[in-house]
Amino acid sequence: MRLLIFVSYLIAVLLNLWASYTQNHFIESATKPILMSFLSVYFWQQTKPRLFAFEWWILFGLICSMCGDIWFMRNDDNAFLYGLFSFLLMHACYLVGFLVYKSPTGGILRGHPFIILPFLIIWSCINYFLRHGVQSMQIPVGIYSAFITAMVVGAINLRSKIGTVGSFLLGGALLFAVSDIFIALHKFNPDINIWHPSFIIMFAYIAGQWIISLSSIQISQDLSKIPKSVSAVWLNQ
Q1: Which are the contacts of 38, defined by CB distance < 8 A and separation ≥ 6?
Q2: Which of 116, 192, 228, 233 has an alpha carbon 20 to 30 Å from 29's alpha carbon atom?
Q3: Distance between CA 235 and CA 237 in Å, rounded?
């Protein structure tokens, strides 16, 4: 069953990327809602025997992402706001998941909280650049971009706790952020010429979600090797 879900997901990914590149809107619309559905099921299958709080939050995030994909398929402002809220919840779930993972080493934010400063500057610059195109959506877009920024910072903090696999997860989080930046540029600054924007957005989005999911599965497997008494202490600190 796991192999079937994985193969189905891979086929849906290839079809969606091809449709995004060739602007085949029918296939793109048909495959987009099922991408995160398959990935959510695959993640559940891989982590079900070891569901600690960390895995639950990543799974909730994938489900919110699936809802956001469905809302974004509708081309109106209300649907865009609902989609934005769904993805905001997804980033919030990922952030909580990254933060609830505890370890004896703590995290980089504990000893170096000023690492947040450059990300606040980047967040401010992006929102300033988009201010004219965003117009009435400036507040919701600003809040959403703050959650993206917080999610990336959370991934950096998690990487400082777990090492190599955390680096991969951070890479996935950054790819996701790149996807959102291209969405904002494409929607709110249409004068900017982006090569195949739908393809770039979907490639970065799919790759980011896949890397985050695989990294989280590996983290879950590493947690399962820790004696229950020790993992309980870590996760409840």
Answers
A1: 5, 8, 9, 12
A2: 192
A3: 6
Of 170, 148, 155, nearest to 90 by C-alpha is 148
- What are the residue ranges of helices labelled H in 101-163? 108-111, 116-129, 131-134, 138-162
Closest by alpha carbon to 220, among 170, 162, 175? 162
Spatial separation of the C-alpha atoms in residues 213 and 236, rounded to whole Å: 23
pLDDT tens figures, 107-135: 777 777 788 888 889 889 888 888 777 77
Q: Are 159 and 178 in contact (CB under 8 A)?
A: no
Q: Which residue reads 């070891």 in tokens?
A: 50
- pTM for the structure as a whole: 0.88
Residue carrying the six token digits 């497997």: 221
Maximal C-alpha separation, the chain: 57
Q: For 122, which DSSP code? A: H
Q: Return the ∠ at Cα 10 (arms to 5 and 14), rounded to 5°.
A: 150
Residue keyed to tokens 């997860």: 169
- Under DSSP, the state recorded for 196 is S
